[in-house]
Amino acid sequence: AMALCLKQVFNKDKTFRPRKKFEPGTQRFELYKKAQASLKSGLDLKAVVQLPPGESINDWIAVHVVDFFNRINLIYGTMSEYCTERSCPIMSGGLKYEYRWQDDCKYKKPTKLSAPQYMCMLMDWIEMLINNEDIFPTRIGVPFPKQFQQVCTKILTRLFRVFVHVYIHHFDSIINMGAEAHVNTCYKHFYYFIREFSLIDHRELEPLVRMAQ
């Protein structure tokens, strides 16, 4: 399942957003290739997420945040026809968890949104951040800002909520589409990564805690 090409499972046209790419020839592109190669080699995912010797932690986190954004975007894009205003009027993870949207622009207070609205706001918001050179610098020698890891924690915490919603509310669709192995691998990879670098508060992980075990 690991080396299964995304194109085989997911319809490329359903991607929500244009994918963010790494420029060939850059340090981050090389890191991205290294990460992809170890992923495809069938190595244990716990080993795959570890920082390679001599690499910068912020570069490693940046590469993964962008890659997870692309992958989760694709997963949700494929599910989106099953996730509608009618089926999911609230962005939730089962009966116990409800996620409200806040972005300091349009929504200054945490606001109830339907799942599709939340996902749309979320993907726009992440895309804006990862394309912002002041936060995700791409030029060689330009340092990451002081708050870089905090921003990444916020991005990853919200991306985790996509898994929560998809697993709890749309798991039957995942199975029907034959995408279960792929989604599980992506989730495991994400989970080991955030655990390796303590990037998400453990309380956020509660909705899927049984699954993680």
TrEMBL record:
<keyword id="KW-0418">Kinase</keyword>
<keyword id="KW-0862">Zinc</keyword>
<feature type="binding site">
    <location>
        <position position="83"/>
    </location>
    <ligand>
        <name>Zn(2+)</name>
    </ligand>
</feature>
<dbReference type="Pfam" id="PF03637">
    <property type="entry name" value="Mob1_phocein"/>
</dbReference>
<keyword id="KW-0808">Transferase</keyword>
<feature type="binding site">
    <location>
        <position position="170"/>
    </location>
    <ligand>
        <name>Zn(2+)</name>
    </ligand>
</feature>
<feature type="binding site">
    <location>
        <position position="88"/>
    </location>
    <ligand>
        <name>Zn(2+)</name>
    </ligand>
</feature>
<keyword id="KW-0479">Metal-binding</keyword>
<feature type="binding site">
    <location>
        <position position="165"/>
    </location>
    <ligand>
        <name>Zn(2+)</name>
    </ligand>
</feature>
<dbReference type="InterPro" id="IPR005301">
    <property type="entry name" value="MOB_kinase_act_fam"/>
</dbReference>
<dbReference type="GO" id="GO:0016301">
    <property type="term" value="F:kinase activity"/>
</dbReference>
<protein>
    <submittedName>
        <fullName>MOB3C kinase</fullName>
    </submittedName>
</protein>
<dbReference type="InterPro" id="IPR036703">
    <property type="entry name" value="MOB_kinase_act_sf"/>
</dbReference>
